[in-house]
């Protein structure tokens, strides 16, 4: 039987996953724009412009669901439109994956969190994710929740900002973030699909939580460019969105993806990840 993945919000992480799926898989991906639909089609994905398209035929054929589309104040967009239809088909799905965020844990003053840490988001976005996770959990699906740290990878690294002089090293005492290379997101999702464990929750992050200014400094060193000067967080000119990222400081544990799924991170820290990105850019692996 052909496996069919219906991917809601088929973006950066989902596209990385589909490169790892066997060739005989059918992948249907939703997107909001015609341009992105054309790009998906070029990758062998069957695009659907959604909201807009009738997704009932896609749902009828789906064996696997992946939800990357984020919630808004109105709730989860997929459930808002398709909750009953998805729930009615719960027995046909072999695996359902929901991409969430480590923002659900809130601020821990630089301390460690794991999947058993109580959820206490300190931002509105984090609370919306908590609500969305719960809404999906209530449907009785073979659900797997993946809480992603800060994502980087091809096209999403610090090098362009370092090169053009817009990178900033914002210093906030004790601030630390976890991050994850998109290739390691993809391999973790693929490992979960291969060994489903309905109800499982996984943190997706690397082994080395680090202050953001250290990552920028290392990128500059790799490029042989001057390290951007430090700027104090209290006086930095930041957008409300950028400032909100500094509202939480924590280190995220990733033991479960290793012990339960057998994942061996390709990029266990930002130094390995940045080196690989630069090598790919310059053609010097």
TrEMBL record:
InterPro entries: NAD(P)-bd_dom_sf (IPR036291). The keyword NAD applies. Keywords: NAD. The keyword NAD applies. This is NAD dependent epimerase/dehydratase-like protein. The lineage of its organism: Bacteria, Pseudomonadati, Pseudomonadota, Alphaproteobacteria, Rhodobacterales.
């Amino acid at each position: 039987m052909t496996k069919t993945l219906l991917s809601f919000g088929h973006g950066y992480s989902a596209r990385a996953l589909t490169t790892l799926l066997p060739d005989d898989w059918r992948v249907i991906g939703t997107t909001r724009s015609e341009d992105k639909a054309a790009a998906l089609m070029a990758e062998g994905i069957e695009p659907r412009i959604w909201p807009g398209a009738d997704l009932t035929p896609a749902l009828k054929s789906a064996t696997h669901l992946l939800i990357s589309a984020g919630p808004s104040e109105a709730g989860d967009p997929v459930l808002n439109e398709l909750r009953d239809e998805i729930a009615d088909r719960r027995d046909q799905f072999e695996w359902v994956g929901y991409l969430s965020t480590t923002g659900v844990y809130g601020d821990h003053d630089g301390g460690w969190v794991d999947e058993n840490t109580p959820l206490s988001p300190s931002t509105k976005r984090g609370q919306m994710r908590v609500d969305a996770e719960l809404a999906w959990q209530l449907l009785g699906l073979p659900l797997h929740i993946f809480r992603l740290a800060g994502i980087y990878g091809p096209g999403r690294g610090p090098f362009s900002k370092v090169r053009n002089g817009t990178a900033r090293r914002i210093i906030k005492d004790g601030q630390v973030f976890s991050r994850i290379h998109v290739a390691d997101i993809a391999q973790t999702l693929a490992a979960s699909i291969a060994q489903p464990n309905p109800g499982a929750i996984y943190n997706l992050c690397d082994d080395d939580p680090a202050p953001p200014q250290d990552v920028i400094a290392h990128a500059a060193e790799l490029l042989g460019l001057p390290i951007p000067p430090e700027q104090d967080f209290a006086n930095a000119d930041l957008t409300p969105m950028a400032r909100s990222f500094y509202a939480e400081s924590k280190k995220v544990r990733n033991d479960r993806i290793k012990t339960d799924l057998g994942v061996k991170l390709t990029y266990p820290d930002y130094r390995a990840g940045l080196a690989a990105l630069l090598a790919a850019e310059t053609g010097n692996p």
